[in-house]
Amino acid sequence: MTGRVEGKVAVITEAARGQGRSHAIRLAEEGADIIAIDACTNFPTVQYDMATEEDLQQTQKEVEALDRRIVTAKVDVRDAAGLKAAIDSGVEQLGRLDVVVANAGVGTWQNWDNTSPEVWQETLDINLTGVWNTMVAGAHHLVAAGGGSIIATSSTAGLKGTPFLGPYVAAKHGVVGIVNMLANELAKHSIRVNSVHPTGVNTKFVTQGLGDMDALIGRDPELGPLFVNSLPVEIVEPRDISNAVLFLASDEAQYVTGLQLKVDAGNCNR
Ligand SMILES: NC(=O)c1ccc[n+]([C@@H]2O[C@H](COP(=O)([O-])OP(=O)(O)OC[C@H]3O[C@@H](n4cnc5c(N)ncnc54)[C@H](O)[C@@H]3O)[C@@H](O)[C@H]2O)c1
Questions:
Q1: Less Cβ around it within 10 Å: N or C end of the chain?
Q2: For 47-57, how does the pLDDT look when each residue is reduced to its tens digit (9 = 90+)?
């Protein structure tokens, strides 16, 4: 099937690399134009490098190679006013907005008694407040358009007590709460609001961002199995998550709202 989101415009945060870039390409393959947003900067409490402006340009090239239009903006999702201005500008240039993918998130790994107030706050600010800012900035356009789809990236850690990820777990559970709340408040505008819950995905979040995860599990080996999937796959690919995002963005999901869609190879079911 092609053209599953033909004529739609989607805003995607964290679009410079990883899952965000994959979502941009997958939606563009199926006919959408893209507003791609990324901070392209590092953060004091996050131990691995974020994307660069060159990464964001690469996303732009890959979407344009599919003959779709794309507007990019370098904005931190914590900056509500900057985010609103970037989305407003993208909508003005591309003519409409149908889909909001609030995909922002960083990983901060440590055990509970080694979680500094700074790590707690920065993780919550990016992973929860940033998602809220994105949804709100986008929702105004969807209300004006008379409908649309909002998709937030949570995690298996938004559904279970994944160890060594305290503030991340708090934020990702919080995302589920605001998704369910907004699904109620926005239903009268024909706006659907859902979350996706990936297991480990092959991005720099995992390949560079796990910190001293092996040491943490080494000290608490009974917790290791909590990271194991049921299906025989250690880690999934960004496109596996993009296919779920595509479904939720498309009219195929026209009556799907308030859903926590797990793409977790059975991780949460164990
Ligand atoms: N990779 C995994 O295993 C996994 C599993 C479950 C959920 N997730 C979630 O998936 C989402 C995407 O992560 P990924 O795997 O693509 O990681 P990634 O590290 O490859 O990409 C993160 C991107 O986000 C951008 N970014 C970070 N903070 C930002 C901010 N404040 N404002 C704007 N952009 C910002 C970075 O520049 C980078 O481009 C995140 O919400 C993450 O929590 C990831």
A1: N
A2: 999 999 999 99
